[in-house]
User: What shape does this take?
Amino acid sequence: MNVQGLTGGGTRPTGTPVSADTADPTDSAAEELRVVRTATPDALAGIRAVVSTWARGVGLSADGLVDLLLAVGEAAANVVDHAYRGGPPGPVEVELGLRADRAGRVVTARISDRGRWRPSLADAGDRGRGLPMIRALAQYLDVAATPTGTQVCLELAVS
Assistant: This one.
């Protein structure tokens, strides 16, 4: 799986997918993971747990695991906080993949919703640090807001 495969309209990336909503996310042979939950605060701990189990199963280092949990957790928290404000919560979807490049291994991630993008406030107070934090961790970050939802695609170099 690569970010181009996540954002483009092409075919599903190759590999052995695992879907946390239909299969055992502890399958350490899985190169990909897909988690879909209702975007509520209670769902965030479950998403982090499934992502952590998958990351350990594919052999991420402790530092790689922390970076992945921070980036994915923050993007998922943004869905919970912002995407469905004023209405019932909808889905938050997390897709992860692992690939090799010249420098080592890279985790690709897409966190998406079917809600509405909310532009940043001019005076956000103590909020608004999530995307800059993800940008600092990731070697690639793209946020795409459309009328049908928002998706955050990122790549993290991991050891």
